[in-house]
Specification:
The chain is an alpha/beta fold. About 45% of the residues lie in helices and about 10% in strands. The chain has helices at about 5-20, 40-45, 50-60, 80-90, 95-110, 135-140, 150-160, 190-195, 195-200, 215-235, 255-265, 270-295, 305-310, 320-325, 345-360, 385-390, 390-400, 415-420, 425-440, and strands at about 75-80, 115-120, 165-170, 175, 205, 210, 240, 300, 330, 365, 405-410. Helix 10 packs parallel to helix 12 and helix 17 packs parallel to helix 19 (about 425-440). The longest helix is centred in the middle third of the chain and has 23 residues, at about 270-295.
């Protein structure tokens, strides 16, 4: 349980015990079935005076390594379209199923309990969808269907191993303009692109790539309907979005028509803040769609680790999203070493933790397994830290577990830890020798 909840329960237990003892009631010695030794009652029998009992209860350690919110510690890995594509393109159902079984098995052996699987990376789909065309990363050609459902296979395998399965999607990012002609005509994104009026309203064209326009209620509905479709079809444990929102440095001319329409309707925000209102509306509708279908499922967001970049470049106000309670967890991408000059890991993690704790949102710490053994070109004096310190990820896990809002960790990405390149294999193995025991030691039996 989280520290705040834990302390409250300890105090309540102490008061209840005091009332019981002062009232003369007896403490029964209860031993769970199959439990040879008592869990709590033995300590109470030998505690002594009421003062000693209360002192002992109130002095219980606060950091019990359980995450905020009372849930099990999430130990997750991002399974990217880059991880999945080699297992899918040109492969039969049987071949994919064998590879998927290995993916799930190896993830569990590493001490992980959650798969964050990218099911919609570029306005496309890794499953049969009425809203988005089949991904070229799944079938080898945009719009060409597979004769099996890889998401269903992977989810069932995860369930068999007791692992959670979360669908990861990029809500705004679409395919390139060069590819849009391959999209079958029944899909909305193709219909909108082919109609100049709908294109201007619902899409944004940036450097040859297509993005869904969050200023459009119709585009936001498509995004939310797509998430609801995943939940209705698969009943996943959660829906996850990452840090692709407005493209950084997107010229204000790109969505100027939509902004002009907003102004004509009486809007007074400047264009930057208007964009933030659009992403807020999109995330709000996504969250509502997910929880309407399955209230018990989690909706999580993984923004960049730099709060300034999120706000300034991507036009997202994550702090407001947390205050509104739009997400069940926040997973900032804290892809920095402790010695990073611009964004040192410890300081940045504490900043996010403060926001998460104030909002009552568990924080899942996103960690950069992909940087192990490589120079960090933006880290300044800490550029060699990922090469010089094989225990870096392990120390980051240990540090994160001390944060009040801690809910778990999330490693980017699967191939970097399970199938590293030949050049990175030795460094990955050295790092894994440090961090894997930390995950395995906290695995529930």
């Amino acid at each position: 349980m989280g520290k705040t909840i834990g302390k409250a329960l300890v105090k309540a237990a102490a008061l209840l015990l005091a009332a019981c003892l002062l009232g003369g009631c007896a403490l029964e010695r209860r031993i769970p079935a199959g439990q040879e030794e008592p869990l709590v009652s033995e300590g109470l029998e030998t505690a002594g005076t009421l003062t000693e009992i209360l002192s002992g209860l109130l002095a219980l350690p606060e950091n019990d390594r359980e995450p905020a919110g009372g849930a099990e510690e999430m130990k997750a890995v991002w399974v990217s379209y880059l991880d999945l594509s080699p297992l899918l393109v040109g492969k039969s159902r049987e071949e994919f199923a064998a590879s998927a079984e290995e993916l799930v098995r190896s993830s569990k052996e590493l001490g992980l309990n959650t798969l964050i699987v990218q099911v919609r990376p570029f306005g496309d789909s890794f499953y049969p969808s009425q809203y988005f065309p089949w991904s070229k990363w799944a079938s080898g050609e945009l719009g060409k269907p597979l004769d099996y459902d890889p998401v269903q296979i992977l989810k069932e395998l995860a369930e068999e191993e007791g692992m959670e399965f979360h669908g990861w999607l990029n809500p705004m990012r679409g395919m390139s303009e060069a590819e849009i002609g391959l999209v079958p005509a029944e899909y909305p994104i193709r219909q909108w692109y082919d109609d100049p009026a709908l294109r201007a309203k619902n899409l944004m064209l940036v450097d040859g790539s297509i993005y869904l326009n969050p200023a459009s209620a119709e585009a936001r509905k498509l995004i939310a309907d797509g998430a609801a479709e995943i939940q209705e079809t698969y009943g996943t444990d959660g829906i996850h979005i990452d840090d692709y929102f407005y493209p950084p440095d997107m010229d204000f001319a790109v969505d100027a028509p939509s902004y002009a329409q907003y102004q004509a309707e009486g809007g007074t925000l400047d264009q930057a803040q208007w964009r933030r209102e659009n992403t807020l509306a999109m995330v709000r509708e996504l969250s509502e769609a997910v929880h309407q279908v399955s209230p018990e499922s989690q909706f999580g967001v993984s923004p960049r680790g730099s709060m300034e970049q999120n706000f300034r470049d991507l036009y997202i106000d994550v702090e407001q999203w947390m205050r509104e309670g739009l997400m069940d967890y926040i997973a900032p991408q804290l892809y920095y070493g402790f010695e990073n000059e611009a964004l040192p890991f410890a300081e940045t993690a504490r900043q996010w933790d403060s926001l998460a704790e104030d909002a009552g949102v568990p924080m899942i710490v996103g960690l950069a397994a992909y940087k192990v053994g490589k120079p960090d070109q933006y880290a300044g004096a800490g550029a060699s830290e990922w090469m010089d310190s094989p225990d870096l990820l392990a120390r980051q896990i240990e540090f994160s577990r001390e944060l009040p809002s801690y809910g778990g960790i999330m490693l980017f990405r699967y191939d970097n830890i399970a199938n590293p390149t030949e050049e990175a294999a030795e460094a990955a193995a050295q790092a894994r020798a440090y961090w894997q025991p930390l995950l395995l030691e906290s695995t529930q039996p």
